[in-house]
Amino acid sequence: MRTDERTAPAAPVVAGLRERKKRRTRDALLRAALLLFVSQGYERTTVDEITDTVHVSQRTFFRYFANKEEVAFAVQDLVESHFFAALQARPAAEGPLEAMRGAVLATWDTLDEALCEVVPVELYMRGYRLIERTPALLAVHLRRSTGLEERISRLLAAREGLDVDADPRPRVAAAVFCGVMRVTGRLWGQGEDTGVAAIRRMTGAYLDQIGPALAGDWRRRTPDGRDPAG
What we know:
single chain, globular
């Protein structure tokens, strides 16, 4: 009995060490892949090159990632999760557009905090630029944006207490917002300033151009602009 009591805590400790080792391996594969992608191109990089850099087998790579495409967007997934957390945390009194604007700017402001344990921000930004310049990755990026828009629209509808399938405004707002993100991403990718501050400034400036229809108080008006109380 004493032996069992003395050794019982070892199991959670071992499990914790195992999970940390898995996370370190995954992060190492991710960093190696991104470095190779930005230095020699996505299409020229093979899985063998990635695994050789980390000194693991192909089997280990496919334990964490289904393919090169998945590893190319892994950090983007992390950034999007960071954005959704920021959007959910915005004050309830903010209108949809104000909330999205605040959330995306907060995401850029805290990017280092979100990525520090995985990849350097500078490497992420180079990878983001690579997506904009690589036709195969850009096609995936545009395809993924459909799911992103739907997720945003449902979150907005929940914030406003609306039925997303009955009221078009959440989906319209999400489409406009994601459209701005695509435009700013493309223009930033074509520019000379590749820093976070540059894309943040551009994002804020472009979002400020969206009209008041999306920035108003949705709770007080119907989709056609009428005041339901009057």
